[in-house]
Amino acid sequence: MTNVKIYKGIKINSAKIGWAIVVIWFSANLLSQALYMGLHGTPYNASAMLSSVGVWYWGLLVLELVVWVLFGMLVVSRVRLRIAVRQRHLENTISSLHIPPMVIPTIDPKP
After folding, report:
1. What is the C-alpha separation between 10 and 16, in angstroms, rounded?
2. What total of structural domains would you count in the chain?
3. What is the domain range of residue 47?
4. pLDDT tens profile 28-50
5. pTM of the entire predicted model
6. Residue 11: is it exposed, middle or buried by C-beta count within 10 angstroms (0-12/13-18/19+)?
7. What gap in Å lies between CA 37 and CA 54, rounded to an integer?
8. How far from the centroid of its chain's Cα atoms is residue 17's Cα?
9. Residue 107: inside a domain, yes or no?
10. Using 50, 70 and 90 to split pLDDT, how confident is the model at 87?
11. How many CA atoms within 13 Å lie on the side-chain side of 2?
12. Looking at the domain assignment, is residue 101 inside a domain?
């Protein structure tokens, strides 16, 4: 029983860490772009930046892809969780709802 609790705790903590990584990455990109635009008046020149990085380009590309895949996995897991919670709620609502059986009225032939 404790292994299940540990697994759930690890799963919850890893999701929190994943979201923190994505939020930090997005915020850093947004703030650096805003700072660059504030100083130079134009957005980043992507081709100039990539050519200046040189060989490190592939490492940065892999890191960027990892963050995007992590973001996609977090979104998909969040959607699956919401669907599962709604399904359980619907099942609980239906199972707790008691509908009495139908009674077919009979007509007495004797007046």
Report:
1. 10
2. 1
3. 2-95
4. 888 988 888 888 888 887 777 77
5. 0.56
6. exposed
7. 23
8. 12
9. no
10. confident
11. 0
12. no
